[in-house]
Amino acid sequence: YGGAPGGPAFPGQAQDPLYGYFAAVAGQDGQIDADELQRCLTQSGIAGSYKPFNLETCRLMISMLDRDMSGTLGFNEFKELWAVVNGWKQHFLNFDNDRSGTVDRQELEKALMNMGFRLSPQAVSAITRRYSTHGKITFDDYIACCVKLRALT
């Protein structure tokens, strides 16, 4: 009764819609590593029209939720990650006022404040210097920044 990815594993069992994305890349161990997470997120289209997540961002995302320190995520951890990343994506979209696909320092500061982070202007400037290219932060780097901030708080 394996069925198609995303299909019911057993007759009558409702399948989580995210399971199809997860199962399509998970190894025999039912876990996904950074390479598999990168493929999964790319195939799912969660990054929208933005460039796919780089491998380092995927490693950061795994480390954020890897409670058993295996370097991988199980399905429940993946579901949690999906919800968190989607929330951050909504913030990114809400604060990318000029629809450039990037946020600048002011947009980043507003987004972080909206998420409950209270940072000094110096901290926001340091984050902008670290994660921006020519003063603009891409979606991928924005997610990496959010992962780091979540880990620090």
Automatic annotation (TrEMBL):
Keywords from the named record: Calcium, Cytoplasm, Membrane, Metal-binding, Repeat
GO cellular component: cytoplasm; endomembrane system
Domain EF-hand, residue spans: 83-118
Main localisation: cytoplasm
Short name of one Pfam family: EF-hand_6
GO MF annotation terms: calcium ion binding
Places the protein is found: Cytoplasm; Endomembrane system
Gene3D superfamilies, A to Z: 6.10.140.900, EF-hand
Name this polypeptide is given: SORCN protein
Species this chain originates from: Piaya cayana (Common squirrel cuckoo)
Lineage, uppermost ranks: Eukaryota, Metazoa, Chordata, Craniata, Vertebrata
